[in-house]
Each structure stands twice: as C-alpha cells, then as structure tokens.
Design brief:
single chain, mainly alpha, Arc Repressor Mutant, subunit A, Tetracycline Repressor, domain 2, 8 helices, 66% helix, elongated, repressor, Homeodomain-like_sf, DNA-binding transcription factor activity, Regulatory protein, tetR family
Length: 207
Amino acid sequence: MPKIVDHDQRRSEIVEAFLSVVARKGLPAATSRAIAAELGVGTGALWHYFDGFDAVTAAAYKRVTERTNERIAGASTGLRGLAAVDAMMHEILPLAKETLDEAQVVVGFWGRLAANETLSAAEADVSDMWGGRLRDHLHEAVDDGDLASGTPVDGIVDLLLSISVGQQVHAVMATPLLDPARQLALIEQCLSPWRRTPRQPGETVTR
C-alpha cells in the first residue's frame, strides 16, 4: 500500500529546516543541499512539495511573519496607544538573536521578490496589516492625550514601516545602526515631536 504523505506537514518541515540552517549558519548556507541534509533526504525530495527555491523562501518569509504576529499579540495583550506601538516595534525590529535571524530570511525573500513579481502580494499584506495596527494604536494615543491632536498619524506610520524595512537591511549588513539603542532612538525621534509629555532620556514605556 502506498505511503500516505501529509503534504502540509512535509512543507512545514522543509521550511523549519530552512530556518534552522539560517539560524545556525546564515542565509548563504541555506542551500537546497543543506536543507535536504537537515531533513535526512535527497535534494530531489524537496521539489515534490515546492516548485522551486523561490517558493521555499516565500514560505519561510510567511512563517517568520506568523511568528512575529504571534509575538506582537503576546507582547501587546492588554496594551493600547504608545505602549502597544512600543511593544509592536520591539517585536518587528532586529533587536535580538531571533529577530536578527529572521532579518536574514526577510532580506533574502526581498532579493528574490525583485526578480519574481508574483511574490509581491505577501509583502504588501504584511505592510497593510502592520500599518493598520500601528495606525489604530497611534489614534488611541491621540485619544488618550499622549500625542497631540494634530499628530500626522499616517505619516508616522509610513516612517515606522520604512524604519522597519531599513533595519532589516542593516541587520544583514551588520552596520552600526544595528545597535538596539540606536534603533529604538529612531522610533522615539518619530514620536517625540508629538508627545504631550516628552519622554525623559533612558525612560521606557511600561509594558
């Protein structure tokens, strides 16, 4: 009797193998041969479940996004306004080992996206989702009196998303702007002109 294979489970295992290799050895090491070795199968077995490496990278990007959303949900539970914005940005920016590894996957996906426009929908979905959440929380901050009534919410959302994208690249390039304090300072520079009560140096939002 033919062996029954759960295709979704096998695809998930391939994605996890890809992410494991990236975490241990970096994105350049995450070749089809390395992924197959991680799973203990031949390279050809990968392509029963994915059309090509672009599809593997896109699936890994989706998995990273799902994990980020799970962390955001956990970190922002019970929070609103600026505290929720702070919680979101701490999970999106490459501030720790996990998010630094994820930046490798994200930037690798963007590199493939430039040559394969069919992948662009995934990136647009993420920007719309995070942008919508940030916009809602910034409006809460205005309603709560933490930000001025004339705060340009849409412009700040665009800046925060642009910073998020740029910092993924800085993570891969390991530039001085990767320093966590400098990353968080960029966020504060977006918000400080509109705060009702300016944050003091070294002060953090209570979560």
